[in-house]
Amino acid sequence: MVRSRMSITPTGQYTDEELLHLVRSEHSQRAIDLLFRRHVHKVLGLCISYLKNPEDGEDAAMEIFENLCANIASYEIQKFEPWLFFVTRNHCLKILRRKLKHRKEDLTEINPDFFVEINEDEDHYLDAQVEQLSDAIDQLREEQRKCIVLFFLEQRSYKEIADLTDFPLSQVKSNIQNGKRNLRNALINAT
Amino acid sequence: MKKKGTPANLSREAWLKAARQKSQVQEDVPSDEFSRRALAGLQYTKSEPELRQSLQRIDKRIQELTHTRRSALRYPRNFWIGVAAAVILLASSAVIVFSLRTDSSRQLFAEHFEPLPNSLSAISRGGSSSAGDLRSEGLQAYENEAYREAAHWFEQYLEQEPADDSLRLYHGVTLLALGRTEEAISSLQESLEGLRHADFRSAAHWYLAMAMLRLKEPTQAAEQLEILIRENPTNRFYPPRARNLLAQLRP
Fold this sequence. Notes:
The complex is a heterodimer of chains A (191) and B (251).
Chain A: H1 16-26, H2 29-51, H3 54-71, H4 80-100, H5 104-110, H6 123-138, H7 142-153, H8 158-165, H9 169-190
Chain B: H1 12-20, H2 33-40, H3 48-74, H4 83-112, H5 129-143, H6 147-160, H7 165-177, H8 181-194, H9 198-214, H10 218-231, H11 238-249
Helix pairs in contact in B: 3-4, 4-9, 5-6, 6-7, 7-8, 7-9, 8-9, 9-10, 10-11
């Protein structure tokens, strides 16, 4: 059961579910504050891991918390942390999908079926592909990963990537080519 | 699979520590996917201070959002008074609630902060005699409440003996006494990475909570107090004070 608002257990800490109960039963904004701030670092880390860029990760985390602050009481949540994980994951995958659509042709080199036309209700299929691609990018060697992230997620040209990374243009091209090949192999192995 | 040294649940401090020591990210892999991926994200970050700032910006945004809603709940609108009056009432109440809250954090700091009594020997456990002199000078100045001077000696000493975490704790308290709050937080957090003695750890969490209050961050102050109670429940000094302070900070 939920403890009285002023009482503290020997461990001194409310569980997530107790805080959620305070949110629902007493509309406690302080409980929302405590609950969310307890998980900020994990949400931020997860966003950065999907979006591969700290600034985009921060923006995504802000959006998630802004949305949740307004709507948290309306969701049916059994276990807060797994639920928050899926909310964060889905938000990031949505952003990733949007970014990757700018490189549709290059993505079909990695996986010809990547952006096959699918129904809205089959988005989970695309999400799984995007997540696999994201995981595969994480596994690339650093120089390939840097170039692939700039190319696919930030839509940079080869020249811009060379300027940003200090790699010669020829190396940028080879990093991207090799990166694509490694991504293709990783996706084949994952399926 | 859970490996040796795996944190059961990834705390903010553990995450930031992993950001400082990126080599350890691969070794301490938590079992839950959320924590594991949150750690994996660190490979795309630049530095721990930048991440800390990023966390603070998000914290601040959450605080702003919940404050706004709190003041709105406290002052329900009344149709009969009219929309204009409600807007004025809401705007002024938000200002009052915010200022009361921030003032109360500062007030709590003023009520609860007092420097940690010196329990360290002036003689260092090792190191060179010149380092020992710096330590002695620093502790003497600390006892005399000459904090500016103490900070000067402590900083010189810690450059030579960076592993003396108990002295680093006193350095953090000294900085806090001087009003150098953000530096104090950094020093106290660093001391916690090496401190093993439970009572020293409790002191570090207590003064981190004080620092958070001074920064008007009551939620983070409460987190430090909760850790303090959890880590050292049998200590007779800090946990009762922490519970008392938490009761004043609770929703």
